[in-house]
Amino acid sequence: MPSTNPNEPLIRMENIVKEFxxxxxxxxxxxxxxxxxIHCLVGENxxxxxxxxxxxxxxxxxxxxxxxxxxxxxxxxxxxxxQQLGIEIVYQENDLVPNMNAVENVFVGKELAKPLGIIDKKxxxxxxxxxxREFDISIDPQQKIEDMSVSDxxxxxxxxxxxxxxxxxxxxxPTSMFNVEDAGRxxxxxxxxxxxxxxxxxISHFLEEVVQIADRITVIRDGExxxxxDNSKRDVPLSALTLDMVGRPVDTFYQRERFAPGEEKxxxxxxxxxxxxxxxxxFSLKRGEILGMFGMVGSGRxxxxxxxxxxxxxxxGEILLNGKKLHISSPRDAIDAGIAHITEDRQRLGLNLGSSxxxxxxxxxxxxxxxxxxxxxxxxxxxxxxxxEGLNVKTPSLMQExxxxxxGNQQKVVLGKWLISDAQVFVFDEPTRGIDVNxxxxxxxxxTELAKAGKxxxxxxxxxxxxxxxxxxxxxxxxxxxxxxxxxxxxxxxNIIKLALGVISHE
Length: 507
Ligand SMILES: Nc1ncnc2c1ncn2[C@@H]1O[C@H](COP(=O)(O)OP(=O)(O)OP(=O)(O)O)[C@@H](O)[C@H]1O
Ligand SMILES: [Mg+2]
Description:
By secondary structure, the protein is an alpha/beta fold. It is globular, with a radius of gyration of 24 Å. α13 (about 375-390) crosses α14 (about 405-420). About 30% of the residues lie in helices and about 25% in strands. The protein has helices spanning about 50-55, 80-85, 100-105, 120-135, 150-160, 180-195, 205-215, 240-245, 300-310, 330-335, 345-350, 355-360, 375-390, 405-420, 435-450, 465-470, 495-500; strands at about 10-20, 25-35, 40, 65-70, 70-75, 85-90, 170, 200-205, 215-220, 225-230, 265-275, 280-285, 290-295, 315-320, 325, 340, 425-430, 455-460, 475-480, 480-485. The chain folds into 4 domains: about 1-85 and about 165-245, 3-Layer(aba) Sandwich (Rossmann fold), CATH 3.40.50; about 95-165, no CATH class; about 265-340 and about 425-435 and about 455-505, Rossmann fold, CATH 3.40.50.300; about 350-420, no CATH class. The chain binds adenosine-5'-triphosphate and magnesium ion.
């Protein structure tokens, strides 16, 4: 019988070991969470966070160890038992069905039925609307998942987990695809949920966010617990967390090497109109320049770069590369022209999950190279290996299937794939989401190297520190238009935010 001792933690995982072929992901981990507590789990990419959570959700069987749920011991769980015990997980991966709407996704496999087995569509919609109201989530419940923004998709995933009477909610990087405002909504939601006595395990690479929200913080490294902090005063220093994560002090503010970009305009956007009635957009990008782009949710920043990279068609205007007008009507055209686009939604669009790190790394590059009649592993490995190592991709070998890598390491493979390509212009949309502090610095170094080698970069980012430290100029996007351009000393957080909100005007 479950114990009713109120001092007993809701969940206690004891000495959990998990081995995969060639990888010891967890080396005897002990971790607990109480009712109504927000316990954050942090660690570098590949440290073992998701694996530990998948053991709780029953997706993985531990090699050894014990899981206590309300005092009851289990050696293994399965997804069904886990749900019956009140454990709900929102995975880092997108596990929604793309061509179904939100309501259908929430109830998939558990559809409400009326007498005679007719599916009760109205009833399901009503339930979803009630939950949306209760937790203050605003999405269109009847919109298809594939037509939703990645942040709305995330709300659907959370909503789905909230529909059951859960005791423990596991959120694996719930805000990694979010902007500041939406992330704030998620944090509020998490507080509301915990206030109802539900235990929460929260995984995030945004350490500021973690310190804001956590009651306790556990840092793990290489499958072992390094330390658990009491954060009831919301005062654990970030430097202590990063030191525990990486094992050495990390500078969280990257200081890039500065050099003047060339005078030549590599890319020119002239009077680009996304739709008939949208405002015309004009800007240019110089050789060796890093151009930051900032805008609030719905400002149109992602739409602008999607047009550049052929992901969406545009209504009117011109895009010139090295003075030559481009005809871009598909992502393929953009790649051929030399424009690389690293999308916001990397998992869906960026990788071939069943293929190896090597094959994924070569995916873009090979489109430019003459295919060799023999699969020349050595030549290819020589191209891919240094980049993946430089980005610190944690994998037993280049032949590992990407599906087996941790979420953050998958993202590094996408970045690596583009770094290996011969593009001239790189468009990075929120490039460092979900990547640990160490790998971020590594990525910034790569970006600086690219610029130094004469490549040009557009970086859409809502992370102020990287926008400010990396950009030569910043374009502020508002209401679908480039509202103003900042350079030098004008590039600071206050300016950027105020202009993006339209609170001050730009002289
Ligand atoms: N199915 C699997 N097969 C083989 N190895 C795996 C599998 N799942 C995870 N691993 C390995 O286990 C280790 C821990 O991965 P895990 O996904 O738990 O990391 P994480 O801490 O969640 O990282 P991230 O922050 O990148 O999401 C990694 O080395 C990963 O490659
Ligand atoms: Mg993970």
